[in-house]
Design goal:
The longest helix is centred in the N-terminal third of the chain and has 39 residues. Helix 2 packs antiparallel against helix 3 and helix 7 packs parallel to helix 8. This protein has 12 helices and 25 strands. The protein is α+β, with helices and mostly antiparallel strands.
Length: 543
C-alpha cells in the first residue's frame, strides 16, 4: 500500500469516527471559544505523538501482511497452507492495531470532543489543521537490487542475535526475525532440550560479526521465501555484513561454515549458494575445525577416534509410499574394539531426529569390524530385525534426496553424535553429506562385500533386502504349534533355519514326563528370516 493510500485509509477512518459523534450545537466561531487550557492541549498532543510513534511498526507489519495476503490469494487461492498462514498473520496484525487504539481511551475521548466542535465549524478547520501534530509514516522500501541469481530486498540494523542462525533486524518494513539461508547452526538451549555441541560458540561468532546496531544487507532469490515454522513472520535471507571499507561483502553464512559451526542446509528454492556452501563445509570438515574436530565439546567419556566409524546413508526409500524404513544408515566399526552406542544418536540436517526418544537403546553395540544398520522408520510386519539392526520408528520419510538438477545441488546429511551430558558431550563421530561433490557418492565396498572380499549373500541392509525380494533372500517361518521337538527340527531344516528349544514343562518329582510339543514360537509363523536364521520354539507337556 502506497503512502497516499495509507494516509487516505487513516483519514477516512478517523473522519467516519468523528463525524458520527458531531452535533450542530458544538459549532464555534473562534478557537478561543474552546476554552481549553494550554497544558491540556500539550498533554493531548504528547499522547497523540506517543501513539503515532507506537503504531508506526504496527502499520508497517500490517501493510506487509496485507500485501502478502492479497498476493497469495491471487496466486494460490484460499486453500494453500501459505495463504492460511498469511491470513492468520494479517488478522493478528489488525488485532494488534485495534488493541493499541482501544487502549488510548483518554486521548480518544478528549480528541473527539475537540474534533467534533471544530468539524461543526468549517471556517475554522483550516486553522486547526495548521496547528495539529504531524505524523510522518515511514517511506516505502526501495526497489530490490538484482544480483547474480538473487536480489537485495532489505537493508537494516541488527536488533539482536537470537542464536547461530536467527537474527532480529530492523528494516524499512519493520522488525524481521530473519532465518539464515543455507546453514543450520547447532540448537541452543530450550525448555524442551539441552544445547547442542557448538551452539554457544556459533551464537558468539554471530554476535561478534553482527553487534547490535550493525548495518546488514538481506538477500534472497525469492522475496516471499520464509521458514514454515513461523511463515511470513520469519523470512529466509542471506545476511551480508560490512567489511572494513564499508561494503556489504561479508557473507555471514560462509563464515559460520568456515569456522565449523554450522551444517549445510540446502534449499531448492534458494539454491544460488548451495554448491559454494557445501564446499565450505567439506573444507572445514577436512580440517577438523569446530564441531568437526571430534572433541570440540568437553566432558566426553567416549574415546572413539575420528575415522573409527565409517558411515553410509540412503535417502531414497525404495519401499511403496516412501515408507521411512527404506531410509537407513550403515555404521562400520573400523577398529577391533566393540563400541557401546547406548544413548548415542543420529541427526539429519533439520530437526526431525532431535527428540531424545530417537537415541539408540541401552545395549546398542557396534562390534569390532562389524556393521550396524539403523532404519529411520518402524520395523516391517513379518520382517524381524537381526541383532545388528535397530529401527527408530519415524512415521514419514525425512531425508532430502541428493540432486544436482539445474545446478541447484540439494540433499541432506546424517551426523552420528555421542550422548549429550550436563556440561558437554554431543561430539561428532561420523558424518556423511549427500550430494557429494564434484559427483555423487559411490557406495563403498564394505556395503556389498565381506571382510574377505567375497560378495555378501544378502546385500546390506539385510532385512530391507529380504523385504524387497523375499522369494530370493527370505525363508518363511512355518507354524510349528503341536509339533514335537524332533518334528520342529525337521520342519526347519529344509528352510536352512536353526531352532532353539526352550522347555517350559515342570514335571513333579516321581512323575513320568509326558510327550512334549511346541506351544509357542518366536518369531511367529509367517515371519521372513535369512538363511541360518534362528527360531525359538517353546515346548510343554501335552494335555
Amino acid at each position: 500500500m502506497s503512502f497516499l493510500k495509507r494516509v487516505a485509509v487513516v483519514t477516512l477512518t478517523l473522519s467516519s469516527l468523528l463525524l458520527s459523534t458531531t452535533q450542530s450545537g458544538f459549532a464555534i466561531t473562534s478557537l478561543r471559544e474552546l476554552a481549553i487550557a494550554d497544558d491540556e492541549v500539550i498533554a493531548i498532543q504528547g499522547r497523540f505523538i506517543s501513539l503515532a510513534t507506537s503504531i508506526t511498526p504496527l502499520v508497517d507489519r500490517t501493510t506487509f501482511a496485507r500485501e502478502e495476503f492479497l498476493r497469495l490469494r491471487s496466486e494460490s487461492g484460499s486453500n494453500s497452507p501459505e495463504f492460511q498462514a498469511a491470513h492468520n498473520f494479517f488478522r493478528a496484525q489488525v488485532r494488534g492495531l485495534y488493541k493499541t487504539f482501544a487502549a488510548e481511551s483518554q486521548i480518544k475521548s478528549q480528541s473527539t470532543r475537540i474534533f467534533s466542535q471544530i468539524l461543526a465549524s468549517p471556517q475554522k478547520v483550516t486553522e486547526f489543521i495548521a496547528t495539529r501534530p504531524v505524523v510522518y509514516l515511514p517511506p516505502e522500501c526501495p526497489p530490490a537490487v538484482a544480483l547474480d541469481g538473487e536480489s537485495i530486498w532489505e537493508t537494516g540494523k541488527v536488533v539482536r542475535v537470537v542464536d547461530g542462525d536467527t537474527v532480529l533486524v530492523q528494516t524499512c518494513r519493520g522488525e524481521l526475525d530473519v532465518r539464515l539461508i543455507g546453514v543450520q547452526a547447532p540448537e541452543t538451549v530450550k525448555p524442551t532440550h539441552a544445547a547442542q555441541c557448538g551452539a554457544a560458540e556459533a551464537t558468539r561468532l554471530m554476535q561478534a560479526m553482527l553487534p547490535i546496531g550493525a548495518e546488514v544487507q538481506l538477500r534472497s532469490n525469492n522475496y516471499a521465501s520464509a521458514n514454515n515454522f513461523q511463515a511470513l513472520a520469519r523470512p529466509y535471507r542471506y545476511i551480508f555484513a560490512k567489511d572494513a571499507q564499508g561494503n556489504f561483502t561479508v557473507d555471514v553464512q560462509a563464515k559460520l561454515l568456515e569456522a565449523g559451526l554450522a551444517l549445510w542446509f540446502p534449499n531448492e528454492n534458494e539454491f544460488v549458494r548451495n554448491y559454494q556452501y557445501l564446499e565450505k563445509l567439506n573444507e572445514a570438515a577436512s580440517k577438523q575445525v569446530g564441531i568437526w574436530a571430534g572433541n570440540f565439546c568437553k566432558n566426553e567419556s567416549d574415546k572413539t577416534p575420528l575415522g573409527g566409524i565409517e558411515i553410509w546413508i540412503e535417502t531414497d526409500s525404495p519401499l511403496p509410499n516412501e515408507n521411512p524404513f527404506g531410509e537407513y544408515v550403515l555404521l562400520r566399526n573400523t577398529t577391533n574394539q566393540n563400541i557401546d552406542l547406548s544413548g548415542w544418536g543420529i541427526r539429519d540436517t533439520s530437526l526431525e531426529l532431535f527428540d531424545p526418544k530417537y537415541s539408540f537403546p541401552v545395549g546398542t553395540l557396534l562390534k569390532g569390524q562389524g556393521i550396524l544398520t539403523i532404519y529411520l522408520g518402524s520395523a516391517l510386519a513379518n520382517f524381524p530385525l537381526s541383532q545388528d539392526e535397530i529401527a527408530l520408528g519415524l512415521t514419514k520419510a525425512i531425508l532430502q534426496n541428493p540432486s544436482n538438477a539445474g545446478g541447484k545441488y540439494t540433499g541432506d546429511g546424517i551426523y552420528l553424535q555421542t550422548p549429550l551430558v550436563a556440561n558437554g558431550g554431543g561430539n561428532m563421530r561420523a558424518w556423511m553429506h549427500r550430494y557429494c561433490i564434484p559427483k555423487d557418492c559411490v557406495r563403498p565396498d564394505w556395503v556389498t562385500k565381506n571382510l574377505d572380499g567375497s560378495e555378501r549373500s544378502i546385500p546390506l541392509p539385510q532385512t530391507l533386502s529380504i523385504a524387497l525380494n523375499p522369494s530370493k533372500y527370505g525363508r518363511v517361518v512355518p507354524d510349528m504349534t503341536g509339533l514335537t521337538e524332533e518334528q520342529a527340527r525337521l520342519a526347519l531344516s529344509p528352510l536352512q533355519l536353526d531352532v532353539v528349544i526352550i522347555d517350559r514343562s515342570e514335571a513333579q518329582s516321581g512323575q513320568t514326563p509326558g510327550e512334549k510339543s511346541v506351544v509357542d514360537q518366536n518369531p511367529k509363523a509367517g515371519a521372513n528370516l535369512p538363511p541360518k536364521g534362528t527360531v525359538t520354539a517353546f515346548v510343554d507337556i501335552k494335555g
